[in-house]
Serine protease
Amino acid sequence: MKPTSSRLRRCVPPVRTSFGVLGTAVVVGHGLALTALDVVAPEPAELTLGIGPGLPVLAVETEAASELALLVVPGLAGPALRPREEPAWVGEHLLLPGYPGGYWAVGQGTVASAALGHFSLRGSFSPGTPALDVAGCLVGITTSGTRCAGPPRLTGFLDQLLAVAL
């Protein structure tokens, strides 16, 4: 099913502090959101997720090697996006919903290069922006500049942390 803008906004909340929007996250389970390590490091005192006052982030689980951070957010109940199993392929067109500059936008990018566990996009995107295929499946998370963490890096990180959390 092709993603709609209203569905994407529920799946892709902004990560905020009292100073404004730091970046973007993607809901990956009840009370859980995924973002780039760069969005939350160094960890600010108070993080919230969502529009307006948002929901408080209770914990942040990170792994430097994966360049990802899992946010534990009690009460977060948006639709969850799970990573697809197939890696990105060179030339694939992806949707990039997020909050560049603190405002909602849905951009597009094309995969410029791909390797096991990560890929690069043409253009520059803020860290934490999810990369979705045309069916709305999560293909990757932008981590820095044009680099994205993709399958199997995403699934390995999530599987490891979700096994501990459950």
